[in-house]
Amino acid sequence: MADTGWDTDVVVAGAGPTGLMLACELRLAGVDVTLVDRLAQRTGESRAGGMHCRTLEVLDQRGVLDRFLAAGDLTPVGHFSGLMLDFDGLESRHPLPLMILQSAVERLLEEWAEELGVRVRWSSEVAGVRQDDDGVSAELRTAEAAPALLRARYLVGCDGGRSTVRRLSGIAFPGTPATMTALIGDVELPDLPEDYIWARRCATGDYSAISFEPGWYRVITSDYDRVADRDEPATFEQLRRSLIRLAGTDYGMRNPRWISRFGDAARQADRYRAGRVLLAGDAAHIHFPAGGQGLNTGVQDAVNLGWKLASVVRGRAPESLLDSYHAERHPVGERVLQNTRAQAALTRPGAQTDALRDVFGSLLVFDDVNRQLRDMLTALDVRYPVDGGHPLAGRRVPDAGLKAPDGVTRVHELLHAARPVLLDLRGSTTLGTAVAGWADRVDLVEARCEDGHWAVPSRGEIPAPAAVLVRPDGHVAWAADGDRTPDTTALRTALTTWFGPARQR
After folding, report:
1. CA distances from residue 192 to 15, 121, 201 in whole angstroms, order as listed
2. In this structure, what DSSP letter does residue 281 have?
3. Residue 32 and residue 25: Cα distance in Å, rounded?
4. How far is CA 428 from CA 278, 438, 443, 478, 492, in A?
């Protein structure tokens, strides 16, 4: 790097899935990034258990999906508060949830990050944050006697629900407190008489026992008679007693690999950006882990933020572009908090909730209801507030098959380099001229699509566009109808808005 007084362009605090994904996105864009984590090394704790199809799509967009598919198992079902949903038939090449433990996700993301040149500093906890007009200084508490100081242009807190970066930056974290306690552990259950137990309801709570790996079960027990102190350690004996209280037996529970606790607290940062400090993942939002949305929302935060932050760091877009991160992702996080609150309410024991679950469950047999919930849980239906009247504007681009001059491809394959793509599907003579000022930032691709219609979640099929401008995160910045001459004025406006001013010749 040039002698600018910065040690790195961006410091990312927290080496979980969100921080790792963000670091990879920044490196793909040529940004120097340093990842710091308070832990001495990776713990191997299993934690989250799956990835939804929108997350699988963004990994496909970067060309690394096969690594994750090889490490997990696809399943045709998901759930809303334990009520089963059919996930087949989604408008995606990857409709099925992938059962994969967070420990495997972190291992694969870390391998990718190493390939891209991401530096990771373990045993480095952010203990102080100081901003000025030129950058941000992160004071790191390390194993050394004296604290280290890391100077960067920006700092992103991906350091979990108790985020130190959020607290030190004065960002409020309002929401609702926990009303219940759940214990979770990976154990052996030699006396379990069934292949698995799914959300079995009891008088005071519920329990599950699900196998993610041969011989090992994830046991989850939920009790509604107390709220544990958040600093109280979770123990194997607590999990065993909780299972006996609910199931009447511990099924021979033994050999715990990991024990933890969670509740239904729901909180969200009131702003995702404070000057040169930004938040993503659990640092920005925590909620009841229902429907498997936490890890997925965090990874998608990272993919939304990464290219924007890279554009600003590299001087290609104004700093105001970073404000669109909060504008787009805060409503998504808010919706996750709301639907997980609803799912938490549906798990409560009692005759009234039993009746509500029966009624709610009877509605899920209707395709429209099933589709509405699965599109929400998978985030396929997310539409950002992008200007433009086209039905694709703001939505994630469908992964249509294409015939390009150099062979058959797909839309998502065009995004492997994490660069914007202007896709010309009708051989327009004006698009090349319109995008010329952005040729250093935007790839113009001419191709043909044999599908006359594209499937759009929550919208149905629409006529295939004549041209579409796709952001690096896979969302559409501008599109033109197939039966009209492309509005190049609107195209230039979109190019300027999202990728900065045109290069002067």
Report:
1. 36, 42, 17
2. G
3. 11
4. 40, 17, 15, 15, 15
- Kindly report whether the global pTM for this prediction surpasses the value 0.85: yes
Query: For residue 415, which phi and psi values (nearest 5 degrees)?
Result: -100, 10
- HEC-encoded secondary structure of 82-123: CEEEECCCCCCCCCCCEECCHHHHHHHHHHHHHHHCCEEECC
Q: Residue 393, Cα to own-chain centre: how many angstroms?
A: 21
Long-range contacts formed by 3-7: CB under 8 A, 24+ apart:
5/134, 5/135, 5/151, 6/135, 6/151, 6/152, 6/153, 7/34, 7/150, 7/151, 7/152
Q: Looking at the structure, do residues 152 and 291 belong to the same domain, yes or no?
A: yes
Residue % of the chain over a pLDDT of 70: 99
In degrees, to the nearest 5, what angle opens at C-alpha 389 toward C-alphas 293 and 465? 85
In the chain, DSSP finds a helix count (H) and a strand count (E) of 12, 29
Q: Which two tokens stand for residue 160?
A: 């979990």
The answer to whether 421 and 412 have CB atoms below 8 angstroms apart is no
For residue 1, pLDDT over 80 is answered with no
* Residue 127: other Cβ atoms inside 10 A: 15
Residue 296 phi/psi, 5-degree rounding, is -65, -45
Is 229 found in the same domain as 329?
A: no
Question: Is the CB of residue 160 less than 8 Å from the CB of residue 262?
Answer: no
Distances in Å between the Cα of 117 and the Cα atoms of 65, 106, 473 are 19, 16, 21
* Helix (H), strand (E) at residue 342: helix 323-347
Same domain, 45 and 139: yes
Alpha helices in 248-322 (DSSP H): 294-313
pLDDT tens digit string along 132-148? 999 999 999 998 767 88
**Main-chain dihedrals φ then ψ at residue 470, nearest 5 degrees:** -110, 125
Contacts of 460 (CB under 8 A, 6+ apart): none
DSSP per residue, 409-449: EETGGGGTT---EEEESS--SSHHHHTGGGTTT-EEEE-B-
pLDDT in tens, 301-316: 999 999 999 999 999 9
If one counts the domains in the chain, the total is 3
Structural domain range at position 452: 401-499
